[in-house]
Specification:
This protein is an alpha/beta fold and 516 residues long. The chain has two domains: 236 residues, GROEL, domain 1, CATH 1.10.560; 161 residues, GroEL (3-Layer(bba) Sandwich). A hairpin with a 6-residue loop joins strand 13 and strand 14. Helix 4 runs antiparallel to helix 16. The relative contact order is 0.17. The N terminus is likely disordered.
Length: 516
């Protein structure tokens, strides 16, 4: 779909030496155009359709970019920015994509003017570093989960869905500030959507699996919980070893030991087992006979949350060879376990471990459920990022301020690197430019209006996208997480530098092809 032959917005003269750069510019612009219509409060949705007619309707940047058919290498580099942004902070993928593409375009424009590409890159690097430094100094901290700014963050990242914003904030309060600030914890992982349901926040774990047999209990009370980060099956022996007498005897011994281990489940009083891998036929039959519910192929993060909530330790299958008294210390407890056949989910409640929250987002249809889940996950990521790194004024106001700041800061830059700083300054206006355009106003006019107001009033002045009037973004609650902006600018600078450095594109030989 995207081959890099699309015409760019700047009419850069074509020169043979510049053909590779211009081809890359066109490709990254095409990626940017795919998402720029979704940015801001007036952004619209995109419909994605595959060859089988399956439809996704969304304005989530990472979803659009992940589902697009892309073959151009420079375009793929831009899409990887969105993935990095999503993985690192979970929000701001569209802004990061637009900013990266704008940096490539503006950098190429400076090269076309005759500025050496190394000097442009030098200036971009300096301008990005100064912008990030300024962002860190400008950030307003949030240390209280009841701070109203968190609701504003969730409301904006949640695309003005008040019910989702409230759900996320309530969920964050249940989890607690200490847990949210843990490096490996992701608030977004606590969110699940369900067709035909209402929004619900509960202390417990929701697993998208059902028992492996209909003959197993679907509801349990006062259940002892066993978690195996492995399969419930005998230890495997390879076919070559099994073909020997020694190997066959070992196989029989392992099978007998496995049968003995299964009998420990009854002695332990286990009522519920969650497995990372599969459950073999012998174990399934044993669990059916003894009223044990088994879920298999449960994702690791769900197993970890289940262990935390029920107080269970995650075991390997060979751990079942331990004595019963030793195994008792690895069991957890759940007061209630329920299966919903319609949604194919199991809810584990009233665990004896730490409080674990699950945020269930309701929706009318399957398609809407998917989009509402994406929206809620963005809101949760934004809230977590704000608690970790603070917030800035939103609506593109901060980026416009940074653009103005770099216009002044570049006066102290010596040499031709100043043109790279100019590229960063101009590119930083692009997110605001696009938000204004999506709202139906004249972007050039509004940029100059806001810049003038900022210089007289303050850096938090932005635009009310309903009325087109200048407003203080902090006063009206339009705020963004600082980490979203910092990481977005950082990776945009890195990828633009990488693309501007490309002088020639060569096709690699097939590494599987033998040389004769």
């Amino acid at each position: 779909m995207m081959d890099g032959k699309e015409k760019g917005s700047r009419n850069l003269p074509v020169d043979e030496r510049m053909s590779t750069l211009l081809n890359n510019v066109n490709a990254v612009q095409a990626v940017s155009r795919a998402v720029e219509g979704t940015i801001g409060p007036k952004g619209l949705d995109t419909m994605l359709v595959d060859e089988d007619g399956n439809v996704i309707i969304t304005n989530d940047g990472i979803t659009i970019l992940d589902e697009m058919e892309v073959s151009h290498p420079a375009a793929s580099m831009i899409i990887n920015i969105a993935r990095s942004q999503q993985q690192e902070v979970g929000d701001g993928t569209t802004t990061a994509t637009i900013l990266a593409a704008a940096l490539v375009v503006e950098g190429a424009h400076q090269v076309q003017r005759g500025v050496p590409v190394t000097r442009v890159i030098e200036g971009i690097r300096g301008g990005v570093a100064e912008a990030i430094n300024e962002l860190k100094q400008m950030a307003y901290p949030v240390e209280d989960l009841k701070d109203e700014r968190l609701y504003h963050i969730a409301y904006i990242a949640g695309r003005e869905n008040e019910d989702i914003a409230r759900l996320v904030i309530n969920g964050a309060q249940v989890v607690g500030l200490e847990k949210i600030k843990e490096p490996d914890f992701h608030l977004r992982d606590l969110i699940s959507a369900r067709e035909g349901a209402e929004n619900e926040l509960f202390q417990g774990v929701l697993i998208n699996r059902i028992p492996i047999s209909r003959e197993m209990p679907y509801t349990l009370k006062d259940a002892k919980v066993l978690i195996i980060q492995d399969a419930l099956a005998p230890e495997e022996i390879d076919d070559e070893a099994l073909g020997t007498e020694t190997g066959f005897q070992r196989f029989l011994a392992l099978k007998e030991a496995y049968s003995q281990n299964l009998m420990k489940l009854k002695e332990l009083g286990v009522g519920f087992i969650a497995l990372a891998k599969s459950c073999d036929g012998l174990a399934e039959e044993y669990c059916v006979d003894h009223g044990i519910m088994v879920l298999q192929h449960v994702p690791l993060q769900d197993l970890q949350r289940l262990g935390e909530h029920t107080g269970s330790r995650l075991l390997k299958r060979f751990s079942l060879s331990k004595e019963v008294e030793d195994l008792k210390h690895s069991l957890g407890y759940a007061g209630l376990i329920e299966t919903d056949e319609q949604t194919r989910q199991v809810k584990i409640l009233q665990g004896k471990g730490k409080p674990v929250a699950t945020m269930l987002v309701g929706a009318a249809t399957k398609e809407v459920a998917g989009e509402r889940e994406r929206i809620a996950k963005d809101a949760a990521s934004a809230v977590q990022a704000t608690l970790k790194g603070g917030y800035h004024s939103g609506g593109g106001a901060t980026e416009l301020y940074l653009s103005r700041h770099l216009e002044e800061w570049k006066k102290q830059v010596k040499g031709m690197g100043v043109f790279g700083v100019e590229a960063v300054s101009t590119a930083l206006q692009k997110p605001f430019f696009q938000m204004v355009s999506n709202a139906g106003f004249n972007p050039i006019e509004k940029i100059e209006l806001v810049k003038e107001k900022q210089s007289n009033v303050g850096s938090s002045i932005g635009l009310d996208f309903d009325t087109g009037e200048c407003k203080d973004m902090l006063e009206i609650g339009v705020v963004d997480p600082a980490l979203v902006k910092i990481h977005g600018i950082k990776i945009a600078g890195e990828v633009s530098e990488a693309i501007l450095r490309i002088h020639t594109v060569l096709r690699r030989k097939n590494i599987h092809q033998e040389d004769f």
